[in-house]
Design brief:
This protein is mainly alpha-helical. Helix content is 54%, strand content 11%. A two-stranded antiparallel sheet has the order 1-2. The protein has a two-stranded antiparallel ribbon with strand order 3-4.
Protein backbone atom coordinates (compact mmCIF):
# COMPACT_ATOMS: atom_id res chain seq x y z
CA UNK A 1 0.00 0.00 0.00
CA UNK A 2 2.81 2.44 0.86
CA UNK A 3 4.94 1.70 -2.21
CA UNK A 4 5.01 4.00 -5.21
CA UNK A 5 3.04 2.69 -8.19
CA UNK A 6 6.19 1.87 -10.21
CA UNK A 7 7.61 -0.32 -7.44
CA UNK A 8 4.24 -1.99 -6.97
CA UNK A 9 4.00 -2.80 -10.70
CA UNK A 10 7.62 -4.08 -10.73
CA UNK A 11 6.80 -6.35 -7.80
CA UNK A 12 3.71 -7.68 -9.59
CA UNK A 13 5.66 -8.29 -12.80
CA UNK A 14 8.16 -10.51 -10.93
CA UNK A 15 5.35 -13.02 -10.44
CA UNK A 16 3.51 -14.63 -13.27
CA UNK A 17 -0.01 -13.41 -12.50
CA UNK A 18 -3.06 -13.46 -14.70
CA UNK A 19 -4.81 -10.22 -15.67
CA UNK A 20 -7.58 -11.04 -13.21
CA UNK A 21 -5.03 -11.57 -10.39
CA UNK A 22 -3.33 -8.26 -11.30
CA UNK A 23 -6.68 -6.47 -11.15
CA UNK A 24 -7.41 -8.01 -7.74
CA UNK A 25 -3.99 -6.91 -6.45
CA UNK A 26 -4.52 -3.38 -7.78
CA UNK A 27 -8.01 -3.30 -6.27
CA UNK A 28 -6.65 -4.39 -2.88
CA UNK A 29 -3.95 -1.72 -3.07
CA UNK A 30 -6.50 0.96 -4.09
CA UNK A 31 -8.82 0.00 -1.22
CA UNK A 32 -5.92 0.05 1.24
CA UNK A 33 -4.85 3.52 0.06
CA UNK A 34 -8.44 4.72 0.27
CA UNK A 35 -8.73 3.35 3.83
CA UNK A 36 -5.58 5.22 4.89
CA UNK A 37 -6.80 8.39 3.18
CA UNK A 38 -10.16 8.11 4.96
CA UNK A 39 -8.42 7.67 8.34
CA UNK A 40 -6.27 10.74 7.68
CA UNK A 41 -9.34 12.71 6.62
CA UNK A 42 -11.15 11.76 9.84
CA UNK A 43 -8.10 12.79 11.90
CA UNK A 44 -7.96 16.16 10.13
CA UNK A 45 -11.68 16.68 10.65
CA UNK A 46 -11.36 15.87 14.37
CA UNK A 47 -8.45 18.31 14.59
CA UNK A 48 -10.55 21.01 12.91
CA UNK A 49 -13.46 20.36 15.27
CA UNK A 50 -11.16 20.55 18.29
CA UNK A 51 -9.68 23.83 17.03
CA UNK A 52 -13.15 25.28 16.49
CA UNK A 53 -14.16 24.15 19.99
CA UNK A 54 -11.09 25.91 21.43
CA UNK A 55 -12.10 29.08 19.57
CA UNK A 56 -15.69 28.83 20.85
CA UNK A 57 -14.45 28.31 24.42
CA UNK A 58 -12.14 31.32 24.11
CA UNK A 59 -14.96 33.46 22.68
CA UNK A 60 -17.22 32.40 25.56
CA UNK A 61 -14.54 33.34 28.10
CA UNK A 62 -14.09 36.75 26.44
CA UNK A 63 -17.87 37.26 26.35
CA UNK A 64 -18.21 36.38 30.05
CA UNK A 65 -15.33 38.70 30.97
CA UNK A 66 -16.83 41.54 28.96
CA UNK A 67 -20.25 40.91 30.49
CA UNK A 68 -18.79 41.17 34.00
CA UNK A 69 -16.87 44.28 33.01
CA UNK A 70 -20.04 45.80 31.53
CA UNK A 71 -22.01 45.03 34.70
CA UNK A 72 -19.26 46.69 36.76
CA UNK A 73 -19.36 49.78 34.55
CA UNK A 74 -23.16 49.95 34.82
CA UNK A 75 -22.80 49.78 38.60
CA UNK A 76 -20.20 52.56 38.57
CA UNK A 77 -22.44 54.64 36.33
CA UNK A 78 -25.41 54.12 38.66
CA UNK A 79 -23.30 55.25 41.62
CA UNK A 80 -22.03 58.32 39.77
CA UNK A 81 -25.55 59.12 38.51
CA UNK A 82 -26.95 58.91 42.04
CA UNK A 83 -24.20 61.23 43.29
CA UNK A 84 -24.87 63.69 40.44
CA UNK A 85 -28.61 63.63 41.17
CA UNK A 86 -27.92 64.30 44.86
CA UNK A 87 -25.61 67.22 44.03
CA UNK A 88 -28.14 68.59 41.53
CA UNK A 89 -30.88 68.38 44.17
CA UNK A 90 -28.65 70.24 46.65
CA UNK A 91 -27.87 73.02 44.13
CA UNK A 92 -31.56 73.41 43.21
CA UNK A 93 -32.62 73.41 46.88
CA UNK A 94 -29.97 76.07 47.65
CA UNK A 95 -31.46 78.30 44.91
CA UNK A 96 -35.07 77.50 45.94
CA UNK A 97 -35.85 75.81 42.61
CA UNK A 98 -38.22 72.86 42.24
CA UNK A 99 -36.33 69.78 41.00
CA UNK A 100 -39.41 68.70 39.02
CA UNK A 101 -39.27 71.89 36.95
CA UNK A 102 -35.56 72.78 36.80
CA UNK A 103 -32.25 71.08 36.12
CA UNK A 104 -28.59 71.94 36.50
CA UNK A 105 -26.39 71.99 33.43
CA UNK A 106 -22.62 72.44 33.51
CA UNK A 107 -20.81 73.86 30.48
CA UNK A 108 -17.09 74.17 31.07
CA UNK A 109 -16.85 76.07 34.36
CA UNK A 110 -20.31 77.64 34.02
CA UNK A 111 -23.16 76.17 36.04
CA UNK A 112 -26.63 76.91 34.67
CA UNK A 113 -30.04 76.35 36.25
CA UNK A 114 -32.48 75.90 33.38
CA UNK A 115 -36.16 75.04 33.08
CA UNK A 116 -36.48 71.38 32.07
CA UNK A 117 -38.70 72.33 29.14
CA UNK A 118 -35.78 74.23 27.56
CA UNK A 119 -33.49 71.19 27.47
CA UNK A 120 -34.32 68.23 25.17
CA UNK A 121 -34.77 64.93 27.02
CA UNK A 122 -31.80 63.30 25.24
CA UNK A 123 -29.47 66.07 26.52
CA UNK A 124 -30.42 65.69 30.18
CA UNK A 125 -27.99 64.05 32.59
CA UNK A 126 -27.79 61.70 34.30
CA UNK A 127 -29.63 59.33 32.02
CA UNK A 128 -31.48 56.47 33.68
CA UNK A 129 -29.31 53.37 34.05
CA UNK A 130 -31.59 51.33 31.79
CA UNK A 131 -30.87 53.74 28.94
CA UNK A 132 -27.11 53.34 29.28
CA UNK A 133 -27.07 49.66 28.40
CA UNK A 134 -25.43 48.80 25.13
CA UNK A 135 -27.48 46.78 22.71
CA UNK A 136 -25.26 44.38 20.81
CA UNK A 137 -26.20 44.05 17.19
CA UNK A 138 -24.67 41.22 15.25
CA UNK A 139 -23.99 41.35 11.58
CA UNK A 140 -26.44 38.86 10.05
CA UNK A 141 -23.54 37.12 8.33
CA UNK A 142 -21.77 36.48 11.64
CA UNK A 143 -24.63 34.37 13.00
CA UNK A 144 -24.14 30.59 12.77
CA UNK A 145 -26.30 28.89 10.16
CA UNK A 146 -26.98 32.08 8.23
CA UNK A 147 -26.48 32.28 4.50
CA UNK A 148 -26.92 35.07 2.00
CA UNK A 149 -27.54 34.52 -1.70
CA UNK A 150 -25.08 35.53 -4.43
CA UNK A 151 -26.99 38.70 -5.31
CA UNK A 152 -27.07 39.71 -1.65
CA UNK A 153 -30.85 39.89 -1.57
CA UNK A 154 -31.72 36.34 -0.62
CA UNK A 155 -31.26 35.55 3.04
CA UNK A 156 -32.15 32.33 4.79
CA UNK A 157 -31.48 30.35 7.94
CA UNK A 158 -30.16 26.82 7.66
Amino acid sequence: VNQPMDEFNDMLNKHNLTEEQLNICRDIRRRGKNKVAAQNCRKRKIGQIEELQRKVDKANRVRNRLKLEHEGLISQYATAAAKLTSLTDQVLAHHNKNKQEYLVQVEGETVLILPKCSVPAHARLPRPVGQTQIRIQYSPLSRPGYTQGQAGGQRSWL
